Amino acid sequence: MAQMKSQQDFYDIYVTELQTNAPQLTDLIEGSINDVLAGVVSSAAREVELLIIDEFRKTYIDTADGPEITLGPDYLQILLVDHFGDSFARPEASFSLGEVTFSRPTAAAGSTLIVAGSIVKTQPDSSGVVQRFATLIDETMGVGVLTLNASVKAAVAGADGNVDIGKVNTIETALTDNTITVTNSAKFSAGAPALNDAQYREFARNKIQTLKGATLAAIQATALTVPGVVNATPIENQRAVIEWDIAMSAPKVGASYFLIPYSVLYIADANGTASQPLLDAVKLKVDETRAAGVRIDILAAVALVLNWTATITLNPGGPNYTELSANTQKIRDTMAQHIRDLPIGGSFVRTAANATILAIWGPAGTGDLVSGGFQTTVPTGNVSTNPNQKLIPGAVVTN
User: Fold this and answer.
1) Overall average pLDDT of the 40-68 stretch
2) How would you label 135-161 residue by residue, b for 16+ Cβ within 10 Å and e otherwise?
3) Of 47, 201, 210, 330, which is least packed with CB atoms within 10 Å of its CB?
4) Digit-coded pLDDT (tens) for 349-374
5) Do residues 73 and 122 both lie within one domain?
6) Between the CA of residue 396 and those of 30, 325, 332, 336, what are the distances in Å?
7) Spatial contact of 139 and 148, defined as CB atoms under 8 Å apart
8) Residue 211: CB partners within 8 Å, gap ≥ 6?
9) What is the pLDDT of residue 258?
10) Each residue's pLDDT tens digit, 204-255
11) Domain check: are 286 and 314 in the same one?
């Protein structure tokens, strides 16, 4: 591999060539004509080398620089836009999103319209700075209604809009009912400064992944390009659907079932959850990536991978004994589905998991497992989750 040369390297090369081709020119003391010429040539060669390297760096995502290094042109953006189009431009600072609750003690004032763009805000901080937020759509607090939730967006982009719970407590825009108050029951998210070079490179890689379209990896990458999303985990689920001839009169008989796949995408911000506005923003992006007709549920949660190993005892008289003796994939699919069916915040309980599998494959189900013929060995204990966490299947094994 070629090595970069210093100016001294070029100087030494010049001197070697000089002495090889003109041995009589031996005067190389500092300030001599030969020393001056060697200095000029080596300096020029070094400048040319640096120019070539600099131009070469601009051709790769990993080495092209933005204004934080160049203090001028955004060569990283120029490269990405030139190769992939305008959608790869460096994202600007993003606006914080959140949800506020308007409340009033009585409904004596009747129906009250809160128009889109109504401003709510925080109290001034120690520096006197106030964070303002605007409602996104017209909202009506109807007759008899005492509380109303509304989505809001920060007036100024950046992370300062990611305010804590209860900080949005002032209504700036005049309402026809002056008894209405406001607060936020969850921390706001999605506000962020403009991406630095490292973040921009990751954004670009995720955007490139989305070009594949409709794969789980593309869906995940799409979600991660939405400002505020820190975690994104997609899984493929299956749902049983019953099919019958719609021309047949009731009761429907002879119906068969089949499994249809659909995907679930769990997303979370830096707080480990996601507000409805953030979920909506992700859905808009994912809709551009998913295949037509494919359903993708987008939920707020941090996905936790659960590996599950169990020992099984097959019933030789079971209807699927021959198949299961060779391959237990169907039982393992059922195990994986049990994990997928656990709700957000739901824990994995070994006894309940054993009972679920035996209810399907044991004596009360297909009869392919003997009584007590399914026992969980890994995990060795129950697995608890936080309210914002969702277990998803990892390695599912039977012994």
Assistant:
1) 90
2) bbeebebeeeeeebebbbbbbebbbeb
3) 47
4) 999 999 999 999 999 999 999 999 99
5) no
6) 75, 17, 6, 7
7) yes
8) 84, 218
9) 77
10) 999 998 888 878 999 999 999 999 999 999 998 877 777 776 666 665 566 6
11) no
Residue whose entry in the numeric block shows the structure tokens 């939405």 = 226
Q: Does residue 49 surpass a pLDDT of 90?
A: no
**Which structural domain, as residue segments, surrounds residue 17?**
7-87
Strand partners, 310: 376, 398
Instruction: For tokens 């249809």, name the residue.
Output: 260
- 281 near 260, Cβ under 8 Å? no
The single-letter code of the amino acid at 163 is V
Q: Which residue has the tokens 């209810």?
A: 359
In the structure encoding, which two tokens stand for residue 25, read together? 């020119």
Gap between the Cα atoms of 397 and 377, Å rounded = 10
DSSP per position, 26-64: ---STTSHHHHHHHHHHHHHHHHHHHHHHHHHTTSTTT-
Split into its structural domains, the chain has a count of 4
Is 1 inside a domain boundary? no
Cis ω for the linkage preceding 105 (within 30 of 0): no
